[in-house]
Amino acid sequence: MTAPGSGNIVTFVETSKTGHVVQELTFELTNQTGKACIGGEWKKAQPIKDPNKYTRDPVYKIENGKFEVLLKNGFCDAYDSYVGQFVDGRFSGEHIFYGWSVETLGDVTGSQIK
Q1: What is the pTM of this model?
Q2: What is the DSSP string of 43-70?
Q3: Residue 101 predicted with pLDDT over 70
Q4: What is the pLDDT of residues 17-28, one digit of tens each?
Q5: Separation of alpha carbons 62 and 41, rounded Å
Q6: CB contact at 8 A, 23 and 52
Q7: Do 43 and 30 meet the contact criterion of CB atoms below 8 Å apart?
Q8: How far is CA 16 from CA 22, 72, 106, in A?
Q9: 92 CB contacts (<8 Å, ≥6 apart)?
């Protein structure tokens, strides 16, 4: 199975470095062009579940088999993303913050639910 795309619903669970659940987010992926300060063909990701209102105008891209959802969009040179791969409908990746440097904030698992 390839990475999900427009019309699919994906859900993510982020855990801290100590294994505690930090947050759970769910998005509907759209085919609408999104804007970001970083290069690539970004599309809008519509939040369905974001209980702590963590995201801000999220967008996603699929490039060279890598799936990335930019969680907080609009901050140039400071990118807050889930990055990883979908294999057989399951996501495995990391929550990273990058720009001038890279910091891994936690592990992320997820799945395509539609």
Answers
A1: 0.90
A2: EEEEEEE-TT---BS-EEEEETTEEEEE
A3: yes
A4: 899 999 999 999
A5: 8
A6: yes
A7: yes
A8: 6, 18, 5
A9: 84, 85, 108, 109
Tokens representing residue 97 in the block = 């913050």
d(CA 37, CA 40): 9
Strand stretches in the chain, DSSP E: 9-15, 21-33, 43-49, 59-63, 66-70, 78-87, 90-99, 102-112
> For residue 49, what pLDDT is reported?
97
Using the CB atoms, write b or e for 59-72: b if 16+ within 10 Å.
bbbbeeeebbbbbe
Say what the pLDDT of residue 2 is.
59
pLDDT exceeds 80 at position 96: yes
Mean pLDDT computed over every residue of the chain: 92
- Are the beta carbons of 24 and 39 closer than 8 angstroms? no
